[in-house]
From TrEMBL:
Pfam families: p450. The lineage of its organism: Bacteria, Bacillati, Actinomycetota, Actinomycetes, Kitasatosporales. Keywords: Heme, Iron, Metal-binding, Monooxygenase, Oxidoreductase. This is Cytochrome P450. The keyword Metal-binding applies. InterPro entries: Cyt_P450, Cyt_P450_B, Cyt_P450_CS, Cyt_P450_sf. It comes from Embleya hyalina.
Length: 410
């Protein structure tokens, strides 16, 4: 039987330079295969769709490192993945505690409350489109900074009551948490700054409560003690981070896919496919989260093919790889919004399924429709250049997307 301390296991590239090729190689090694994470920490990498669905739904798999990962005591406090392991929120809870903490935030993402956000999302998109119209013809613009990043971040900051003077700092520290190639000292500094920033948000909302989710969580904390102060801060870290970066990547990956596949844009114009097809195919092909750390085996789990994950072993789930599993999809690396089966696990699966998935889909739909309606001749500014990617094996996204909004004749 293999074990997670297998001497020949590869490093998971912390820069995420070639996520899909790396995932395909890991998938070929078995239902789970040992890898080394930053700092030499060992974990099982899981990239096959069926194995992922099995493990993340199994009660023998936990997100609670303190309770179920004995090796945590040997992990240095300046580890690059501390924010993913040592925070105390629904993200890292298991069983009854997870259900309790999740219930406190689920009210913000009911179908009714999500739909109530539609006018605000449209308002943000319309304002950003107006700003883009000011850009001169032939002048490149970074669509990530000018558009894709602003839509979901403004929505989630509104939802959690982040005041205007704190927004730029909040988003900067969230970005830093996803930089898995950072050196340990920088990662430690980023983590401290992230906690300090979210702590200041809590202090601000405690002094100035309003109709926002942070104020609601503070009321739960101060009223009946349903949250510790640490859980309060860490829940803000979880929700503001998860509610912004994933949708940024979804919007930008969708735009990029259409720009490098102009035939699919033509099909959109002819209504042979629709925007839902584009969004779901992008989620399948370029899921905004590549790998999600970490989970832990509560008991030995046999996966077949001679692989057993032992109790206490860590597991890193390749959600982004599931959509490209050739056992599930024909031509899995081809962008085809017309394909009948666009199944993916981009928003996770099982008890930890992303609460904000409907909101992310709505934001992407509104943003993409407006962008291509106003700028139908949108093109890459430098089609001959490789685009810089986020240095992360967690986030699957571009650092920038320089485009030309219109041609000289449009």
């Amino acid at each position: 039987m293999e074990s997670a301390d297998h001497a020949g296991c590869p490093f998971l590239d912390p820069t995420g330079a070639d996520l899909h090729t790396e995932a395909a190689g890991l998938r070929d090694r078995g239902p789970a295969t040992p890898v080394r994470l930053p700092g030499g920490v060992r974990a099982w990498s899981v990239t096959r769709r069926d194995t992922i669905k099995f493990l993340v739904s199994d009660r023998r798999v936990s997100r609670d490192a303190a309770a179920h990962w004995p090796a945590l005591r040997d992990v240095p406090r300046n580890w690059q993945l501390d924010v993913w392991v040592r925070t105390d929120s629904a993200f890292n809870a298991h069983g009854r505690e997870h259900r309790r903490l999740r219930a406190l935030i689920a009210t913000a993402f009911t179908p009714r409350r999500t739909e109530e956000l539609r006018p605000r999302v449209q308002e943000i998109v319309d304002r950003l489109i107006t700003d883009l119209h000011i850009v001169e013809t032939g002048q490149p613009v970074d669509l990530r900074a000018a558009f894709a990043r602003k839509v979901p971040t403004e929505v989630i900051c509104d939802l959690f009551g982040v005041p205007p003077h704190m927004r730029a700092r909040s988003l900067h520290v969230i970005d830093a948490a996803l930089h898995t190639a950072a050196d340990p000292d920088q990662a430690t500094a980023d983590y401290r700054e992230l906690r300090a920033c979210m702590g200041e948000l809590v202090a601000h909302r405690r002094a100035h409560p309003g109709p926002d989710m942070t104020s609601d969580l503070i009321a739960a904390r101060d009223g009946d003690g349903h949250l510790t102060e640490t859980q309060l801060v860490d829940t803000c870290i979880l929700m503001i981070g998860a509610g912004s970066d994933t949708t940024v990547n979804l919007i930008l990956n969708s735009v990029h896919a259409l720009l490098i596949h102009p035939d699919q844009h033509t099909r959109l114009r002819r209504a042979s496919i629709d925007w839902n097809d584009v969004v779901e195919e992008t989620l399948r092909l370029e899921g905004p989260i590549a790998h999600m750390p970490l989970r832990y085996a509560v008991a030995d789990i046999e996966l077949g093919e001679g692989v057993t994950i032992r109790r206490g072993d860590a597991i890193i789930i390749g959600f982004g790889a599931a959509g490209r599993d050739p056992a599930v999809h024909a031509d899995p690396d081809v962008f085809d919004p017309a394909r009948a089966d666009k199944e993916h696990l981009a928003f996770g699966h099982g008890p930890h399924y992303c609460l904000g998935a409907p909101l992310a889909r709505m934001e992407a739909d509104i943003a993409l429709r407006a962008l291509f309606a106003h700028f139908p001749d949108l093109t890459l500014a430098h089609p001959e250049r490789a685009l810089p990617r986020r240095e992360s094996f967690i986030a699957n996204g571009l650092r920038e997307l320089p485009v030309l909004l219109r041609t000289d004749t449009s």
